[in-house]
Amino acid sequence: MNHQSIYRTKTRMHQVGRKLVLFIGFVFIFVGYLMAYQKGLPLLERAKASKEWPTTDGVVLESKIESHHSSNSSSSTYSPKVIYRYEVEGQKFKGDTVWFGNDVSTSDRSMSSKTVKKYPVQKNVIVYYDPAEPAVAVLEPGVFKTTYFFYLFGWLFLGLGLLMTSGILFRSLLRLFRGPTEIQQSADSAD
């Protein structure tokens, strides 16, 4: 192989690598946006608003710990499953939200165990419900640590995606303004 064909192969590999990193970066940005702004932020806003919601009486119908097994690992995560019934203006509803973010599974079984013990079957509870959408309810209003999970995790994905794509896009802009030969010369001198 001569020097010219090695250079072309290297250039082609760099282009494929850049495109792959760009693609993965954009996937991270998309997933991060969905997690942070479609799931996380509405959850946070609802949790903050729930402190002002009206209340009604309810009763716990089901209370247990759910175990989630990972297919590629022997470890398990746990989450509490509490289902309660309540009534708003003569209409009956069922809810399963103890606090906003309680659907996040953790490896700490004791957290789920405490929740299940706190809300045994047949316990009378006070239910906070959204006056605009009474089917949305919660037993413990407000913001908790796990309420931030989707928002923060989404921003982690967004940040990684932005880091992955910004370097490549910045170099492409430089190439437009400075010309490809100057950038190639500076890259060769860096090697």
TrEMBL record:
It holds the Pfam family DUF3592. It comes from Gimesia panareensis. It comes from the Bacteria. Residues 56-143 form the DUF3592 domain. InterPro entries: DUF3592. This is DUF3592 domain-containing protein.
